[in-house]
From TrEMBL:
Family of this protein: Belongs to the group II decarboxylase family.
Known EC number: 4.1.1.28
Cofactor: pyridoxal 5'-phosphate
One Pfam entry name: Pyridoxal_deC
GO biological process terms, semicolon-separated: amino acid metabolic process; carboxylic acid metabolic process
Protein's recorded name: Aromatic-L-amino-acid decarboxylase
An annotated Gene Ontology molecular function: aromatic-L-amino-acid decarboxylase activity
Keyword field contains Transport: no
PROSITE patterns the UniProt entry points to: DDC_GAD_HDC_YDC
UniProt cross-references to SUPFAM superfamilies, sorted A to Z: PLP-dependent transferases
This protein's record includes keyword Cytoplasm: no
Alphabetical UniProt keywords: Decarboxylase, Lyase, Pyridoxal phosphate
Length: 486
């Protein structure tokens, strides 16, 4: 028993924290300065990192120096470097300097803004910063923002709100044990999987999402949407929500939101805009057209952790109907009742999570550090680099563009003459594997009308024209090598 009494207690002593914090910050500064020297994609096999970790936690505490040594020796080799200037896969992102500082401070404060009184500044900074962002994106007044972890969660909340707005009393009665019409969400065939997943989670099922055909530029066809809604209504199905995407994941196509909004208004259906990636382009005055029509949406998601240089995670859900979101999610047990009552915003009311990280700090610091003009010039440059690469690809006979480039994503493939489609697919798969295995650049792939295509996304603050030029040279070199090997 006396052993227990002699056990150390309390946190790391302040001076020890200070020493290691300085060490860690120095490591971070060196890392960010030299991140381009690492292989972009982790060069480890599945299980390799786990095999180097003890099977159980230590009984006795360990010195920070030992822990940091293992961070460098065991963890870092298993890191795929999203902050690398040659990271072109999925959507390329940046944890910027000001964003990282905000994340560090938020960790130190460890505040949980579930209620206004548990986080007055986080609650009010979130509202103010998101109103800045609303203005920067050219959205009208009346859009109310909250920060969520991911676009997947933002969209889940939006569709839950659409279901609440439909007046089926799902909140009280639930989705089972009673007569309910089949409910539908509509989205283009290019839509992100998070919409299907929201349908799965909300009890709509996979058949609850109906995919609408796209045109030759991969944009939702509003006439086909309207026809689907009319057909479903006639069959007794209840249209809940339309998800329009500005910047689809596969090809960055931009749905005609204004025309889709007309259909939604005519049929009384909630319009949610998935602008997780493309919404950031609205920070560039001449690209603001990407959000044309979005002012008529009921809700919109944009991810500052995607193309606004804020460290993951930070997703913003804007809605013109915050009272519906609250109606769907607010539930206040006695132990969370506060004397402020209805006079304040309690962030726990706007989604399924109670706890609320202080994510607005890193967004605020990033927007202030770069300013509206600095944000715009960086995003504009990414678009310029993408257009430049597309022009190089267009200039080569044996390469072809697979989709237009409205923003900063280039979708293309190597198409040697005389190769049929199946062999071209296999060839591009091998090419992608060879490029990624080399560790000098990291790209991802998609299928465009069934054909394998390479995706090169530009969005990292360290990516320069030289990096794009080198990646293009590498692609051509590897294409020749892979072909010679075949
Ligand atoms: C990235 C992306 C998502 C998913 O974002 P998460 O924040 O990872 O959930 C959804 N939709 C689109 C269009 C995206 O680009």
């Amino acid at each position: 028993m006396s052993d227990t009494l002699e056990m150390p207690s309390g946190d790391m002593p302040p001076e020890e924290f200070r020493r290691h914090a300085h060490q860690v910050v120095d490591w971070m500064a060196d890392y960010l300065a030299g991140v381009g020297d690492y292989p972009v994609m982790a060069q480890v096999r599945p299980g390799e990192v786990a095999a180097r970790l003890p099977a159980s936690a230590p009984d006795a505490g360990e010195p920070v120096d030992d822990i940091l040594r293992d961070f460098r020796d065991v963890i870092i080799p298993g890191i795929t470097h999203w902050n690398h200037p040659d990271f072109f896969a999925y959507f390329s992102i940046t944890g910027s300097g000001p964003g990282i500082l905000g994340e560090m401070l938020a960790a130190a404060l460890n505040t949980n803004a579930m209620l206004w009184r548990t986080g007055p500044a986080p609650t009010e900074l979130e509202a103010r910063t998101l109103d800045w962002l609303r203005q920067m994106m050219g959205l009208p007044e009346g859009f109310h923002g909250t920060i969520q972890d991911t676009a997947s969660m933002s969209t889940l909340i939006a569709i839950a709100a659409a279901r609440e707005a439909a007046g089926l009393d799902v909140r009280e009665q639930g989705m089972s044990g009673r007569e309910l019409p089949k409910m539908r969400v509509y989205a283009s065939e290019e839509v992100h999987s998070s919409i299907d997943k929201a349908g799965i989670t909300l009890g709509l099922g996979r058949t609850g999402t109906r995919k609408i055909a796209t045109d030759d530029r991969f944009r939702m066809d509003p006439a086909a949407l309207e026809q689907a809604i009319v057909e479903d209504r006639a069959a007794g199905i209840l249209p809940l929500c339309v998800v329009a995407t500005t910047g689809t994941t596969s090809t960055s196509s931009i749905d005609p939101v204004a025309a889709i909004a007309v259909v939604c208004e005519r049929h009384g259906v909630w319009l949610h805009v998935d602008a997780a990636y493309g919404g950031s382009a609205a920070l560039v005055p001449e690209l603001r057209g990407v959000l044309d029509g979005a002012e008529r949406a009921d809700s919109l998601v944009v991810n500052p952790h995607k193309w606004m240089f804020v460290p993951i995670d930070c997703s913003v859900l804007f809605t013109r109907r915050p009272e519906i979101v609250r109606r769907a999610f607010s539930l206040v047990p006695e132990y969370l009742v506060t004397p402020e009552g209805e006079g304040v915003t309690n962030l726990m009311d706007y989604g399924p999570a109670l706890g609320k990280r202080f994510r607005s700090l890193k967004l605020w610091m990033t927007l202030r550090y770069f300013g509206a003009e600095g944000m715009a010039s960086r995003i504009r440059e990414h678009c310029r680099l993408a257009t430049l690469l597309a022009s190089w690809i267009d200039g080569e006979n044996e390469w072809e563009m697979m989709a237009p480039v409205p923003l900063s994503l280039v979708v293309f493939r190597h198409a040697p003459r005389g190769m049929d489609d199946a062999r071209t697919d296999a060839h591009n798969e091998r090419l992608l594997a060879a490029v990624n295995a080399g560790g000098r650049a990291y790209l991802s792939h998609t299928r465009v009308r069934g054909r394998l295509a390479l995706r090169l996304a530009i969005g990292n603050l360290r990516t320069t024209e030289e990096h794009v030029r080198d990646a293009w040279a590498l692609l051509r070199q590897m294409a020749a090598e892979v072909r010679a090997d075949a």
